[in-house]
Amino acid sequence: MAQLQWVQTSAPSNYWSSIACSANGTTLIAAGGYADGGISGGIYISTNSGITWFETSAPTNVAWNSVASSWDGVTLVAAATAFFTPGIYISTNSGVNWKTASVPTFEYPISVVASSGNGATLAAAIFDDGTSTCYIYISTNSGVTWIQSAAPSSQLTSITLSANGSKIVVGEAGDIYGNGSILISTNSGRTWTQTSGPGTSGQIASSADGTKLALAGGAYVYTLLC
């Protein structure tokens, strides 16, 4: 097998923290910033698989922690965290315009976001570091309105959606003994099941139909059929 080679794109140097792409890989969305160091970032888009990039109109005086995209790269959701103007931001025109989501903001949030395939269902998990409380908000109309989910409160670190938005899976940070849990909803966040997890202080990903999950936590990578 030929050795794979990574190619550096023309994206500007930044403290990149999250990236998303359209289903065909043509549209790439990169978000950056460094919250702990107070370094501002921005959100950049490439529509030709990374050959050229342009900066979107997203705020630049924030640290972007997470970004997600619909399959066509039109609906975008991004989480700004920790300093300056934290919050959840939505674009429904490939980053041309952005608006803040109607979810509460906190002084010390750590947020992660996810999108369904068509961008209609969006999810945001917000951990308020100041009070050690977590909240999960769901939108089923591309970010126009949001509803707080009744998910158990825990230190959430990652979130993923099935393609149709019905299954939502959230990973919880494990403690020093590796104890963690996975929160699963099969009805777009109306009810949840909490299952044991292998210390899930990493990222979680889902197949399109939500039946296969993969989790990178600590020193290992795990899979789950559900």
Architecture overview:
- Helices cover 0% and strands 43% of the residues.
- A four-stranded antiparallel sheet has the order 1-2-3-4, with no helix packed on it. A four-stranded antiparallel sheet has the order 5-6-7-8, with no helix packed on it. Strands 9-10-11-12 form a four-stranded antiparallel sheet, with no helix packed on it.
- It has 226 residues and is mostly beta strands.
- It contains no helices and 19 strands.
- It is globular.
- Strand 6 and strand 7 form a beta hairpin.
Shape: globular
Assembly state (oligomeric): single chain
Q: Order of strands in the sheet with the most strands?
A: 1-2-3-4
Report the end-to-end length measured between terminal Cα atoms: 33 Å
Percent strand: 35-45%
Backbone CA Rg: 17 Å
N-to-C SSE string, H for helix and E for strand: EEEEEEEEEEEEEEEEEEE
Largest sheet: 4 strands, antiparallel
Estimated structural class = mainly beta
What low-confidence regions span 5 or more consecutive residues with pLDDT below 50?
none
Q: Which percent bin holds the helix content?
A: under 10%
Number of strands: 19
What is the residue-mean pLDDT, rounded to a whole number? 83
Number of helical elements: 0
